[in-house]
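We modelled each protein-ligand pair independently. The example shown here corresponds to the zinc ion entry; the chain sequence is given first, followed by the ligand as SMILES.
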Amino acid sequence: MDDKPSSDDLYKSAVHILATLAESYKGEIARRIIEVIADKGEITDNEISEILGVDESEVRRVIWVLAGEGLITSKRVTSETGWITFYWVLPLDQVDGILLGLYRKIIDRLEKKLEYETSNIFYWCLTEGHDRYTFSEAADNMFKCPLCGKTLMPYDNSRLIAAIKWALSEMKKIMNSYFKEEVIKEDIPESEG
Ligand SMILES: [Zn+2]
C-alpha cells in the first residue's frame, strides 16, 4: 500500500520513541499500552484493559496522562444507532507531511516539557501511577499524596530529563533525515539539457 519504505521505518521509530517516553512517564504499563495501540491501530480502554490484564481504572489513569502528554490521541466513532465509542490511536499513523507536522508538534511539546522538568522540583509518594507535584502543589497538600495519604518525597527526575533529551534528539534526527530526503527528491531539476 505504501510505496515509500521510509514511512514504515519512520512509523516504527516513532512507536519505539513513544513507548520509551511513555515508560519514563508512567512505567512499564504505559509502554505496554503504547505497544498494544500500535499493534491494534485503534482500541478502546476496555480492550486495552482486557489484553493487558490490568484493572480498567488503572489503564484509564495512565491513558489520560499519555493523552495529556500528546503521546496518544482519541478518535470518536458514532455508530448508526448513535452510540459513541472512543478509540485510542497513536498520533503517528499517518505519513509524509502530516507525520512531519505531528513530529514537529511533539518536538515542540517535548521542548516545553523539558523546560518544565528542568525548572521545577517535584514531590512524589513513590506509588506507581500516582501524580508528582511541584513544590507549591505539594505544600498545598501539606506534603501528603491526595490519593493515598503517604508522605510526598523529593522526586529525582534526572532519568525522565535524560529520556526527554534522548527522545528529542532521536525525533530531530529522524525528522531531519526524512525531511532532507524529501527536499532532494523535490529539487531534482526537470530539464535535461
Ligand atoms: Zn499516592
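The domain at 5-118+157-175 is CATH 1.10.10.10 (Arc Repressor Mutant, subunit A).
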